[in-house]
Amino acid sequence: MGDDAGITPTLPRCLLVFLAAVAVAAASAEENGGAGWHVSPSPSPSPSVVSSSRARTSKHHPCLENPPNMTENTGGEAGEVVHDYGGLEAYVTGSRRFHLAVILVSDYYGFRAPKLRKIADKVALRGYCVVVPDLLFGDPYTDDPARPFEEWIKTHSPVEAAEKTKPLIAAMKKDGMSSIGIGGYCWGGKVATEISKTKETKVAVISHPALVVVEDMNEVKIPIEILGGELDTLSPPKLAHQFEDALDKNKRVDHFVKIFPKAPHGFACRYNTSDPFAVRTADEARVDMVKWFDKYLKL
Ligand SMILES: *[C@@H]1O[C@H](CO)[C@@H](O)[C@H](O)[C@H]1NC(C)=O
Ligand SMILES: *[C@@H]1O[C@H](CO)[C@@H](O)[C@H](O)[C@H]1NC(C)=O
């Protein structure tokens, strides 16, 4: 159905850097103020291998690799920006008269990222009203060296963002959207995980999550899908399988964990448009996400 129409090849801004290991003594997102790293499951972390042409310390963080091109031409946007939807600014695409809806929560780069909005448009074509809220409140992470990531993240808690999502969900329900799912990428994966501990939405999908810890899975109350990348150093396959084990024990919820071969952190929403394999992998992640939503929302 011409699903890939509108993807324009662009020059990526930086080389993808695969880190040998990311090991920072951070017990959990809450305890460390959300520094963005997990405790490495490996007892002896290997040194980071950094070969970026842009030598900035923040580039050591896998979440900040291959940042979105904010002026990328993805062939236009089907939706519109709504200035107050449950107190949030949001990109809304698809009819607000649908009873089926999906909330997509961005990574650190925020709700303006053209590729994210394109994903939202494509999900909307499957019969959903898709809402991409600005849970970073006009203050997404930028590569501004004057404001290192470690400082920025302190004022952008995904747990608080999940609280701010609740009035949006209420507003959507008031608009007649009775079946709502939530998807999140990276930082948004933690937001979606927090929401999945409630019954605010019916289903959740998290793609290459950041800040999510194994214990989170014990509290999940709705069907959850986890899409991980084989080369993700932040939420590596090993961690994804620990999530799966915890979900197996959490008898309350259906769950599905999939690891995409050769996929780095960020693969579902910050892929390299010039790399056909990366484009196909991101497409597959989106299709898998929609199938999971369909399964629980189109009953
Ligand atoms: C993107 O893909 C193209 C084609 O495979 C490759 O030449 C380029 O180096 C890639 N860019 C990044 C940032 O990986
Ligand atoms: C970003 O996208 C714009 C518009 O397509 C393009 O002109 C520009 O070269 C891109 N920048 C990078 C760094 O890829």
UniProtKB/TrEMBL annotation:
GO MF annotations in UniProt: hydrolase activity
Chain segments carrying region Disordered: 33-76
Leader sequence residues: 1-29
Organism of origin: Oryza brachyantha (malo sina)
Annotated ranges, domain Dienelactone hydrolase: 89-296
UniProt protein name: Dienelactone hydrolase domain-containing protein
Keywords tagged on the record: Signal
InterPro entries: AB_hydrolase_fold (IPR029058), Dienelactn_hydro (IPR002925)
PANTHER family: DIENELACTONE HYDROLASE, OS05G0400200 PROTEIN
Pfam family name, one: DLH
